[in-house]
Amino acid sequence: MAYQLGGTHCAAALVLLGAIAIAPHPAQADAANNILTVGMGSEPFTLDPATGASGFDYPDLYSLYDRLVHVDPKTKELRPGLATSWRFVGDDKLGLELTIRQGVKFHDGTSLDAEAVKFSLDHFKARKLIADLDVVDSVEVTGPYTVLLKLSQQFSVLPAVLSDRAGMISSPTAIKKFGKDYPRNPVGAGPFKLKQWNSGTSLEMVRFEEYWDKDRIKLAGITYRTILNPTSLVSALISGQIDHAFGVDPKNLPVLKANPRLRVEIQPSTAYYQISLQKAIPPLDNKLVRQALNMSVDRSVLAEAVLGPGNSGGDALMPVPPVNFAYSPELSKTVKYDPVKAKQLLAEAGYPNGITLRHCGTPLVGYGTDIIDIEQEQMKPAGITLDVTIMTGSACLQTFNSSTRYHSVQIAFSGRPDPYLTYQQNFGKNGMYNRGNTDFPGVEELLAKIRESYDPAEQKKYYTELNKLWIENVPIVTLFYRPQFAVYKTDVFGEQPNQQGKPDLTTLYFKK
Amino acid sequence: MRQVIIRRLLTALPTALFGSVLIFLLVHIIPGGVAETLAGPEASPEMVAVINEQLGLNRPLHEQYFDWLGKAVQGNFGHSLLDNRDIGQGIADRFPLTMELAAIALFISLLVGVPLGVLSAVKRHTAVDSAVTSVSGLGLALPEFWIAMLAVNLLALRYTIFPATGIVPISEDFWGHVNSMVMPSLTLATGATAAITRFTRSGMIDALNSNYIRTAWALGLPARQVLFSFALRNALIPVITVVGIVAGSLIGGAVLVEEVFVIPGVGALLVTGVLQKDFPTVQGVALVLTVAVIVINLTVDLTCAAIDPRTRR
């Protein structure tokens, strides 16, 4: 018996496939029009600087908003931004006077003057989501282009804080006009303005022709493409669909490095991995136990396993990376992996049979199963057992923040615009990440001295003291620094990596 | 026939409602919440409290649920807790793409699966049959995300035939759209094709063994008429029933395929919503998907009734 199955269908299918194969590749990057396509591992929930919290949102924010204060990416010195100058006033230095740059416009045409700055700063404080401006009691307009920030206590690091989210100035017209929808209709005075936000797909930005410092900007536009899946991000890089990506999973670096059309850069960052500790309950209320925990992890081995060989930013015994001025290199090797000594310390603390910690992690690289598996093995000889629960990040944090069910949580910390904030929030008595609100002797005094010191050399001295106290008291177990892993097409230049690892992409350009 | 439709619709309503309560409870049973997500990976208890207050998440659960339901029945799905976007609009923007992907995959699986099943049944116990059976077994066994990664590696990275990620909107460029749909829809279609091949094969074998087919051969009718008019028509009834089930799993499978190929369908909306506990979004999407599956199954039942009078009861 012989049967024929529709030959004509086959022919039609072949013709269709042929047509598909010769069609152009429209999903390629848009370099021909001088538009940079960037692959982003997450999409912002909000582009109002006052309401977002994700470190991933910074490239978008830096494009849309200019800041009162800039940071020189090389020297790390503060430079004039929207504020041309600033000084602390009064004998008690409880005022910061800012002179605002004249002739600057927002994307919607509104003039950026003292009133606009006041409105934007008040808006930031009123949202109550970010603590950066908590010391600012009120903002006063003292002239058309001068504002005075009145402080509740001396706060020498305020100018540095104004180089971050707090210093990103939003258009008062737009905030009033859009109200609750402002986070999706952001209007700043930055070098690029929002053209279109295609939810789940991309954010398209075009150059703002009236930007006050437009000679700095060479691109005609930037398209931020949302690619949530890390493997798909790598595929998009290799196939040339995007010109740049950062925050790339370091395990993929060998493949990307081998590609002649791509350039891989490992840049500094303030981010580090850590184990957060609940110090309100035993056994972690005991300093000796925390010290034992601190020497029960082999940091280099963990870093190599999570980030890949040669990709670590170094062992972290302090909450700031080596490039930061608050880092103390002389203390960087004072704690070594020593489970035998850890076991002795536990016995001394009254736990001769070891301890069990209820530990929460998230199923992501570096936050969960991979790193915790190794930690469990490393801690075993010291007599420390991790009783592990794996949940989503928000579930771990909610439980950790609102109860004492977990002793510890595996997280990564992105760092703060100024080291003072990192120390204050993790180490200070009222620090928001100091679970248990432990009052570490000497810390509050040193923090106050830093707030009241306007000389970096003097501040450095206090930070060294703080670092010694940090290593002695172990408020959290810092593990290793995570550098920024960035990939560029070989015709893309002009990156200005900053110390925070929060990329400002506005200065990139194509060179043929 | 009208009674069948009405009865089906009436049973569908409580199914949808029950689904929405179940989803609501599931989302709330797991710890963690939108506030933690919004406050970021370093959320402090103070920040979380402020956000919960702003979003009205400190109200009793039943109050939140009925508030949502009351608006949903009026066609208002509310706003996302994460980014305050209109959920109805978000679904309307993304749903067509997910349905298109599932429909193309279903079309491919029928186009390939039915002829292969027939071929395999007719040539049963030959090398052709063994080949079809083994390949379809493989198709059922392989997970879609793995096939997707393999396809990207081969057809987008090694040979740059198709784009590695993303979908070109049909309004922008028709052939570009087709081009970008090929890999996702083929990937999604593998499991369904295998299932349909197998069901067609067994249905066809049953039919070919039946008395009326033997009679047809004995009467000397042409092979084309015996196979396609008599055997296939009867063999297709179980296949059509399977299509309803397959269509439901295709919509589910689309979620994973959308993630790998970076397709802005409802899948991405659902995944983010579930992980971040944005329950109005999850419920909105789930409700629309539930209704879609119910409609598909209704269509399938009616098609069966049209083909086979025996099922019209």
Write down the overall mean pLDDT of chain B. Answer: 84
Low-confidence blocks of residues of chain A: 1-27
Number of helices of chain B: 12
Relative strand content of chain A: 15-25%
Average pLDDT metric of chain A = 89
Sum up the overall morphology of chain A in one term: globular
Structural class of chain A: alpha+beta
Largest interface: A-B, 64 and 67 residues
Structural class of chain B: mainly alpha
Beta-strand residue percentage of chain B: under 5%
* Beta-strand segment tally of chain A: 20
* Succession of helices and strands of chain B: HHHHHHHHHHHH
Report helical residue fraction of chain B.
over 70%
| Outline of chain B | globular
Salient structural properties:
heterodimer, A: 512 residues, alpha+beta, seven-stranded mixed sheet, five-stranded mixed sheet, 29% helix, globular, B: 313 residues, mainly alpha, 12 helices
Task: Give structural notes.
The complex is a heterodimer of chains A (512) and B (313). By secondary structure, chain A is an alpha+beta fold. Chain A contains 15 helices and 20 strands. In chain A, strand 2 and strand 3 (78-80) form a beta hairpin. In chain A, helix 13 runs antiparallel to helix 14 (443-451). The radius of gyration of chain A is 26 Å and the shape is globular. Chain A starts with 6 loop residues before the first helix and ends with a strand. The model of chain A is unreliable at 1-27 (pLDDT under 50). Chain B has 313 residues and is mainly alpha-helical. In chain B, 78% of the residues lie in helices and 0% in strands. In chain B, helix 1 runs antiparallel to helix 12 (279-307) and helix 10 (223-261) crosses helix 11. At the A-B interface, helix 1, helix 6, helix 12 and strand 16 of A face helix 2, helix 3, helix 5, helix 7 and helix 8 of B.
